Amino acid sequence: FFVNFVVGQDPGADIAFHFNPRFDGWDKVVFNTLQGGKWGSEERKRSMPFKKGAAFELVFLVLAEHYKVVVNGNSFYEYGHRLPLQMVTHLQVDGDLQLQSINFIGGRLPPPQGPPMMPPYPGPGHCHQQLNSLPTMEGPPVFNPPVPYFGRLQGGLTARRTIIIKGYVPPAGKSFAINFKVGSTGDIALHINPRMGDGTVVRNSLLKGSWGSEERKITHNPFGPGQFFDLSIRCGSDRFKVFANGQHLFDFTHRLSAFQRVDTVEIQGDVTLSYVQI
């Protein structure tokens, strides 16, 4: 299969970066540039990070001096720019693969807007300010929203409602928080706080101005520095069920019995968001 960073969409358009894994008996990945109808000199790496029949996560970091390729969280290759990256307008993916999702993170974003940030959660690493039945997702998705993010849950939180959050933890990220909040009182029904420094994901609730007992047990931690994540938070009648990258992460039993009063989702801290649907 191949991934092309293309200049325009006309037939024969220049390709600033051609990424091409080849299973041909001499398994390798080929990198090149097509300019003026002619391919440049190939760069090759005789190492295959992909396995037939296996899922993968492929990330292209577009940096000032090169494209950095990361496969399944591991740095794989750096390809120096041969064409100005500002010329690239389209992404092309084709060949022998099945696509699950494509996300774009970064670019020019509007300035953040929203109410004042919540008081900091106490403790180290605080942030400064599938299923038995089909989930429901009420609102339209938002792409590349700024952080801090403030989203309004129209009609309040309801059982079987699912919130989807996709994003990226910066390499130097220390902590971020996701809050399911009652706007009128400041109560937080569910506080999710990944702390990259100590490798934990803290859950708690803030009711009547007081934090409850922390919950920390998880089956795995998807929030490593430099990692992408796909989070699904489902509200049930008695608990939240949270999945990360398709795997169950934890349950959180409702402490706010009237969870329907939750009307706001806040996300703040060391995180870049690519997609939010509430």
Automatic annotation (TrEMBL):
<keyword id="KW-0677">Repeat</keyword>
<feature type="domain" description="Galectin">
    <location>
        <begin position="1"/>
        <end position="105"/>
    </location>
</feature>
<dbReference type="InterPro" id="IPR044156">
    <property type="entry name" value="Galectin-like"/>
</dbReference>
<keyword id="KW-0430">Lectin</keyword>
<dbReference type="GO" id="GO:0016936">
    <property type="term" value="F:galactoside binding"/>
</dbReference>
<dbReference type="InterPro" id="IPR013320">
    <property type="entry name" value="ConA-like_dom_sf"/>
</dbReference>
<feature type="domain" description="Galectin">
    <location>
        <begin position="149"/>
        <end position="278"/>
    </location>
</feature>
<protein>
    <recommendedName>
        <fullName>Galectin</fullName>
    </recommendedName>
</protein>
<dbReference type="GO" id="GO:0005615">
    <property type="term" value="C:extracellular space"/>
</dbReference>
<dbReference type="InterPro" id="IPR001079">
    <property type="entry name" value="Galectin_CRD"/>
</dbReference>
<dbReference type="GO" id="GO:0002780">
    <property type="term" value="P:antibacterial peptide biosynthetic process"/>
</dbReference>
<dbReference type="Pfam" id="PF00337">
    <property type="entry name" value="Gal-bind_lectin"/>
</dbReference>
<dbReference type="GO" id="GO:0030246">
    <property type="term" value="F:carbohydrate binding"/>
</dbReference>
